[in-house]
Design a protein that fits this description.
Layout lengths: L1 E3 L2 E3 L2 H22 L8 H21 L5 H10 L4 H32 L12 E3 L6 E3 H4 L15
Antiparallel strand pairs: 1-2, 3-4
Amino acid sequence: TIMASGAKIRTAQEVVDVLHLLVSEIRDVLQGVVGRTANEDLAGSAMQLGALIGRQGVLLERFGLQDETSLQEVVSQFEGVSAVKEANCALVEAREEWRRTLQSLEGHADQMSRPLAAGDRAPSFTCKETLTDAPVSLEAVTHDGPALLIFLRHLG
């Protein structure tokens, strides 16, 4: 039995299993986030990616691992096992993809929060038509030419 920071992991295969679970968790969330367009829920996507931190912590605790340091202590004790090395590399790659995706979302959010200047193209969006509540996209409205958008604040 290998012990690190209170963890009981008996075999290299158990280490591989933990690493694969962590990778799978990251990839599942990334799959739901990647490919979203600028007019979709960027805040929701960022929240999903941020929630991964807690979910990864819960998964580590399930195996008696306190944190990332204790995981790496266990991994280092099986460093001569190629399956452990490969699984750890997969985790490093998945976490790097997680980081890049979060940075990309932050970049989109920064771009979306920047005020438009005269002559800028409006970002793509869909809103509800005032009389029917039917969804109307900017693309549909501007299909035949320019459109003037007026935003009214309801004070009631």
